[in-house]
Amino acid sequence: MTRLDSILQQISDTNNSPVHLWHPEHIAEIDICIKRNGEWLHQGRVIERKGLVKLFAGILRNDDGEFYLVTPVEKCHVDVESTPLVVILAERIEDRWFITNNLDETIELIDQKIEWLDEQTPALVWRDQLPARLSQSVLYQLQVYALDHGGMEGDQLWLQTGDSRVLLTGKPLIPLCFPKISMNLWVHLQFLKNK
Predict the structure, then answer these.
(1) pLDDT class for 180, splitting at 50, 70, 90?
(2) Distance of alpha carbon 136 from alpha carbon 82, whole angstroms
(3) How many helices (H) does the chain have, and how many strands (E)?
(4) Which of 24, 34, 35, 107 has the highest Cβ tally under 10 A?
(5) pLDDT above 70 for 168
């Protein structure tokens, strides 16, 4: 089995609860917070068991920007500092890009739209309307690849993935994305624009 076949099998085996079908009347509070870095806290303490975090994430739902753990009989509000998921890995296999989040879930980067939640937070919709923030290293990796492979069109940067293209940014790459490492990328971008 090739690496591509293995990842596609993993994606098809993902089984999340049908939270979009559940509409409980009872709403409760629970002291759970998802930090910007993707850590889940209960009563101020980090939940160390990744399996438990994955279980909770499987019943997490976004209702108009508010996040809830949802079961058929109850939903509990969860505080989220930025986004509930963080994209921590990007991998190019053959001519397709795959991204993995902090819960080891992988999807193919295809037909996603990267949106800026604010000047420092690029994100995309992962599943069930759950936003996933792109880590700085992943965004940098995708941008550099796109720059090196002719993805710059005017002020827009496109990433080719399979037969699709993903718009990485329609705004200036620098200094919004990488204030600490912006000079190298900015010089690289200017060189490619003037080629």
Answers:
(1) very low
(2) 14
(3) 4, 15
(4) 34
(5) yes
> Of 108, 124, 113, 125, whose CA–CA distance to 162 is shortest?
108
Nearest Cα to 7, choosing from 139, 135, 97, 138?
97
Q: What is the pLDDT of residues 140-161, one digit of tens each?
A: 899 889 988 888 888 888 899 9
- Please give the radius of gyration of the chain, using alpha carbons only, rounded to the nearest integer: 18
Separation CA 105–CA 98 (nearest Å): 10
Distance, in Å, from the CA atom of 185 to the CA atom of 174, rounded to the nearest integer, reads: 8
Beta-carbon contacts of residue 34 (< 8 Å; ≥ 6 apart): 40, 41, 67, 78, 79, 80, 81, 84
The 3-class secondary structure across 38-79, one letter per residue, is: CCEEECCEECCCHHHHHHHHCCEEEECCEEEEECCCEEEEEE
Tokens coding 58: 């499987």
